[in-house]
Design brief:
By secondary structure, the chain is an alpha/beta fold. It has helices spanning 7-10, 135-142, 193-199, 202-219, 235-250, 275-293, 304-320, 325-339, 343-348, 355-361, 400-414, 428-433, 446-455, 474-482, 508-522, and strands at residues 70-78, 81-95, 101-112, 122-126, 145-146, 163-164, 174-178, 187-188, 227-232, 256-260, 368-370, 378-380, 460-466, 493-498.
């Protein structure tokens, strides 16, 4: 799960200073440059686990150094083929301009044996948060071993059994999973607030990951290889910015960018933006139709009428506002009919159905709430009589225990790498300390996306979403991608949408189809 920020909560906090974002030039030191002002932090994600202490006062265990890299050989028997590969679990050290160690960034790399390194693609993968490790993409989608993480079946007590992943990407690209500092086993070496401010920021984070990619390429003698970048959720902010940094600051070209359930622009999720309702309406409708669809299920093609309505009459009626009572009533009743929400509730909300309201109201009569990451999954409301929303995410939180156990077991037993301290699947301290930048506007990556596509006409973009994802609704990406200039042609920029949630790849059909799309991109 590439955990994305709860955008509506994030925007409750005021950003206090205005500045321009400055692109940093290529530099000799191996640490991100200071961010001179930290924005007010966001609230931790629901279900954040593994936070030890806080960002300003890290626990003593975090100061221990990581062990030397461990390289092991493996053979994976899969349907129709056998893969022989080398796995390396290790870290990239980062230094400041005085050559003082600042942090150690853990990675897990898988390289197919016998391939020509100069022509063999290599893909760098990271999740989101901020504060999430790369476990979701590694064990849910692309890695050689997979954990069953289907949100409608997994429970916290599920056995963390890793099985050979028939849909691994290792057939056609080597894989390097990166855990940003404070996640996985990555840790600070230097102490003090200043070093954390540098790394726990939008720009510092981008500098760090781009530098780690370059350092791994140098360390592994892979600079000539075709290179790809894949990010999930908040990876939609990271991904385009990292590719831009690699192109311009690190001198590393990238062939393709793969974004999984991305968020491109926080500005459309503010409390005042009407577009947030446009973005989420098709996904809410998909959930309602899925509940009635039977075995066939719902596909994006079944939502063509809703997409047309959302960007047409729905938006027009939203813009008219409560001053037009007829338009407001018309809108509210249509939203109720599409989403299955009680018409009285929809009228009370003037048809402006927020994610939180939908999750609680959709099946309130049965005392159940839907997931945020996958709203087709529901669980019991722990406080069904409460006047406020007091529930977690039944589609996300149950994954924390089995994923953490699986990651630790793989690292220590199969890969023979044994760091001290705890593995951080999702670190709430990182999320709480994050500096989202100066100015009145939240982060966005569309500016960098335009630049990287313009700079390299051969670079391709693949964006993938799940129909039932209310954290980063697919229709938001659809509309934003439609705004790109003509050079971002359909041959270069592709949006695919699968039945499923934020981690749509947890479903067999979606995972298989997505793998085929990624393989085509790397050709």
């Amino acid at each position: 799960m590439a955990i994305c920020l709860d955008a509506p909560r994030y925007l409750r906090f005021a950003l206090v200073f205005l500045t321009l974002s400055v692109m940093t030039g290529a530099r000799a030191q191996d640490a991100p440059q200071p961010q001179h002002q930290a924005a007010s932090p966001s609230e931790p994600k629901p279900g954040a686990t593994g936070a030890r202490g806080n960002a300003s006062n890290p626990p003593a265990a975090e100061q221990g150094r990581l062990p030397p890299d461990s390289t092991t050989q493996h053979t994976l028997a899969l349907p129709g083929r056998t893969l022989d590969f080398t796995a390396t679990a290790g870290f990239i050290p980062l230094f400041n301009d005085k050559r003082e160690p600042q942090a150690e960034i853990a990675f897990t790399a898988y390289q197919l044996n016998g391939a020509d390194a100069r022509t063999r693609p290599v893909t760098f993968l990271f999740n989101g948060g901020p504060g999430a490790s790369s476990a979701w993409l590694q064990f849910g989608a692309a890695g050689p071993w997979r954990l069953a993480i289907n949100a409608d079946a997994v429970t916290s007590s599920a056995a963390p059994d890793l099985l050979p992943n028939a849909e691994t990407w290792l057939d056609f690209t080597d894989l390097v999973f990166i855990d940003p500092v404070g996640t996985g086993y990555s840790r600070f070496v230097a102490t003090g607030d200043e070093v954390r401010k540098r790394f726990y920021s939008v720009d510092g984070d981008v500098d760090t990951i781009a530098l780690v990619i370059r350092r791994w390429l140098e360390k592994s003698d892979r600079l000539p290889s075709p290179k790809f970048v894949a990010g999930e959720s908040y990876g939609g902010i990271r991904g385009p910015k990292i590719v831009r940094n690699l192109q311009v600051d690190q001198g590393v070209g990238v062939r393709g960018l793969i974004l999984v359930s991305p968020l491109f622009d926080y500005r459309e999720f503010t409390g005042s933006s009407l577009l947030q309702y446009v973005w989420s309406l098709p996904s809410m409708t998909a959930v309602a139709r899925e509940s009635r669809a039977g075995e066939g299920g719902v596909t994006r093609a079944d939502l063509a009428d809703v997409e047309s309505y959302a960007r047409g009459e729905f938006l027009a009626d939203l813009l008219k506002g409560s001053a037009d009572a007829e338009a407001t009533t018309r809108l509210a009743d249509r939203v109720a009919a599409l989403t299955g929400i009680d018409p009285a509730v929809s009228r009370r909300l003037a048809g402006r159905l927020g994610v939180g309201e939908f999750r609680r109201e959709f099946d309130r009569r049965n005392g159940r709430v839907t997931g945020r990451y996958d709203a087709s999954v529901s669980g019991f409301d722990p406080y069904p009589d409460s006047s406020s929303h007091r529930f977690g995410d039944p589609s996300g939180e149950p994954l924390a225990a089995p994923l953490t156990s699986a990651a630790v077991d793989l690292t220590r037993r199969k890969l023979n790498w044994r760091p001290d301290g705890s593995y951080q699947l999702l670190n709430g301290a990182v999320h709480g300390a994050w500096d989202f930048g100066r100015g009145i506007n939240p982060p966005e990556s569309l500016s960098q996306l335009r630049q990287v596509l313009a700079l390299d006409p051969k670079l391709k973009l693949l964006v993938a979403h799940g129909l039932f994802d209310l954290a980063t609704p697919y229709f938001g990406s659809k509309i934003l991608l439609d705004q790109l200039p003509a050079y971002a042609s359909p041959e270069r920029v592709r949006l695919v949408v699968y039945p499923g949630g934020h981690m749509f790849y947890s479903r067999d059909g979606a995972r298989q189809a997505f793998r085929s799309e990624v393989e085509a991109l790397t050709k």
